[in-house]
Design goal:
By secondary structure, this protein is mainly β. The protein has helices spanning 57-65, 78-84, 94-97, 128-134, and strands spanning 2-4, 20-26, 29-35, 38-43, 46-51, 67-72, 102-104, 111-113, 118-124, 136-147, 151-152, 155-156, 174-178, 181-184.
Length: 200
Amino acid sequence: MRQDVPLPQAYRLLNHGPTVLVSAAHGGRRNLMAAAWAMPLDFDPPKVAVVLDKSTFTRQLIEASGELVLNLPCRAQADMAYTVGSCSGETLDKFEAFNIGSFAGSATGAPLVEGCVAWLECRLLPQPDVQTRYDLFLAEVVAAQADTRAYAQGRWRFGTGPDADPALDKLRTLHHIAGGRFFVTGEQLQARSEVKEVKS
């Protein structure tokens, strides 16, 4: 059910501000952590930004490998997302400890988390001063995939209303508030432009 997302459209996977699970690997170690502050920066080549605290083991792996994956967890993974964001992976393998499945990506050595609804494989764009001062990491998206049940033809498919598919409810992305509380992506609506003629 995974399908490649064209790289110039990769920003659409993050544009609505979901919580992400950041995964990385280096030297035979792997880890993942939750991050609420991630966003798209550019279209082509696609770039992203994510804040990673100095104390995290995932950050150490990213700085060593130069690679990371932004995995988008869904409603069915809320407990797991909160759990991996609440403990350090320096002394344990979170994948093994919490029975989290993973699979190999097509462009990086970082693990992709099973059950998520989208995955962005990224290569770090090193900015040592920015990383040290602001904990802000910039990366280029080199591969992107999405679960076609939740995202297809360039659009998220989180239906609402009487005709909505109830199976899609568990695939809604998460948005962290604080203290383990999340809300899930809700109703979509289509706006209409009132501009009659556009002049440049």
